[in-house]
Amino acid sequence: MLASISRLQHDQNPRVSVPAYLASLPCALLTLDNLETVLNSDSANVENWLGVIAQISHVSLLITMRGSTPPTTVRWTSICRDPLSPLSLSASRETWMDLTSSEDKKLDARLAMLDGLPLAIKLMATLDHAATPSELIEMYNAEKTSLLGIDGDTRLKSLDVSIRLSLNSRTMARNPQAMDVLSMLSLLPTGLLLSSIGDVVPSMDAPRANALVLVKTGLAIREKDRIRCLAPIREFVMRYHPLRPGPLAEGRGYFMRMTDEVEDIGTEKGREVTAHLLTEFSNITSILWNFWGERYQQWMLDVSKESLTRATQRLGDFSQFAFIGDCAELLEYACTQLEREGDQGNAGMCLSLIGEILSNQMEPEEACSQRIGEIFRMQTKYEETIGLLEEARTEFRMIGDRLSIAQCTESIGNIFRMQAKYEEATELLEEARAEFQTIGSHLDIAQCTRSIGDLFRMPGKYEKGTGLLEEARTQFRTIGDRRGVAQCTRSIGEIFFWQGEYEEATGLLEEARAGFRTIGDRVGIAHCAYNIGFVLHQQGKYADAIACLTGARTDFGAVGAHRAATECTETIDNIRSKIARARQQ
C-alpha cells in the first residue's frame, strides 16, 4: 500500500523502495494508523523495517496502535513512550459537544459510564442525535456495549468489534490465563494492585505477567501501582466472558475477607483499615452484588450464604461509619432474598442497617430548611427510615432478639433527636438504654448515654448534658472505643464554646481531633476543624480560622459532605468580608 501511495513501480521490493523513496525527499512524516494489525501478523519483519525507516534522519514517524509497547527498533521521543490516558470528564464533555448538541443534566453521568474511552464517546454521541443523555443512559443500561455498534461492523463503527480485535490478538492467544485476569477485572470498578493479583487468584501462574499482557493489548490501563479496565470494556467482558467458577470463588473469598477488617475500626489499626476499605469499597460492593445474584441457585452451600450475608452486613457497618457510598440498595436486595429464605433475623439486621444509613445521610439543619419542598422531602425521608426501623423491630420481636429490638429503638430515638422532637427522643433513648443495661451490652449503653447527653446541649441544660457526656466518655474508655471517646470529647467542647469558654473549648476540640486522627475518622476530623475554626473566628483570630475552615472544607468534600463543605465556604467568605470592612475603616 505504501508503495502504491508513493507511486513506486510494482516490480520493486517495497521493503527497499519505500525507505529509498523517503530518503530522497527533503523531509517527510510517515503516519501509520492501527499498527498493531500488521505487528500481530509479522512482528519481527515489521519492527525491523520500522528500524530502517527510523535511521533516516529527516523522516519523522508517527504511529497509532493498541497497547503500551511500541516497536523497540525505533527510538521514540519520551512523550510517546507512555500510552494515552482515558479522556478526563471535561475533555469527554468537549468531545461530546463537538459531535452533538444533545445535552441535559444527566450528561456527566452518561460520560462517567463511558469512562473516557474516545470510541465509546464518539459512537454514543452519534447514535441518535434526537435522544437526550437521560434516554441514552436507559438504552445503554439495557443493551450495554452492543448498543454502540448498530451502524457498522468495523473497529471504528462498533465498540464490540473493536474490543474483540484485541481479545483475538496473538498476544492474548499466547497468554490464555490473561483472560482470567481480564474477567476478574471486569468485576472490579477500581481495579487491582498489581502486587495483589496473586493473592486474589492464587491458582494462577505468573499473575503479574498476565496482567501486563492486558496493558500491552490495550484491554486494561495501568494507573501507578494499579491496573483496571475501562467501564465499556468491563461491560463487554462481563457479558461475553464471565469469570470461570474457580478463579471467581477465589476472588469472592479475597474481597469478602476484607470486610473482617471492619472489626478493627476504633483500634490502633483503625486508620490503616479505613484507608484500605475506602480504596476497595467499590470493588467489594461489586463482588457482593455479583454473589447475591447467584444466591438463589441450588448449588450454593449454606456456609457460602452465611459468609455472603455476614460480609454484606459488615460492609453496611463500614458505609455507615465512614459516610461513604450507599449500601442501602444492596442491603435492600439482600433483605428481600433473606426474607424469601425465612431468615428473619438477618433480614431484620439488614433493615436496621438501611435505617441507620439513611439516618446518617440526614443532617439536623436539613429539617430546618427554609424551603417548603426541602422540608417535605426530608420529613418524607425521616418517616421512611422510621418505618423501616419499626418493620425491623417487629421482625426481631418475632424471633425474640432483645438486643436488636433495643438497637432499633435507639435508632428511632436518634431520628426523633434530629427532628428536634426532644421529648420523644429522650423517652425512646432512655427505654433503649434501660434494655441495654438489662442485657449487659456496654457499648450500646455508652452510645445511648452519649445520645441523651447530646439532647441536653442547650441553654439551661448544659450542666446535665456535660455530666451525661462525661459518663459516656468514661464508658467508652473502659471498653476501648476510641471513636466514642473522641465524639464525647467533641460534644463537651461544643458545650464550652456555646458557653463562651473559648480556651477550654479549643483544648477539648483539639483533643477530640487528635483522637479522630488516630483512628482515621476523616468526618470527625473535619467536624473538629470546623468547630475550632468557628472558635478562632469568635476570638478574632481570622487567619487561623480561615486555615482551619479550609482544611475542614477539603475533608468534608472528600467524604461527600457537600452541605458542610458549602457552610465552610460561606463562613470563610464572611470572615474575609469582615477583614475587608475592617481595612476600609
From TrEMBL:
Signal peptide: none annotated. SUPFAM superfamilies: TPR-like (SSF48452). Gene3D superfamilies: Tetratricopeptide repeat domain. Keywords: Repeat, TPR repeat. This is TPR-like protein. InterPro entries: TPR-like_helical_dom_sf (IPR011990). The lineage of its organism: Eukaryota, Fungi, Dikarya, Basidiomycota, Agaricomycotina. It holds the Pfam family TPR_12. It comes from Dacryopinax primogenitus (strain DJM 731) (Brown rot fungus). It comes from the Eukaryota.
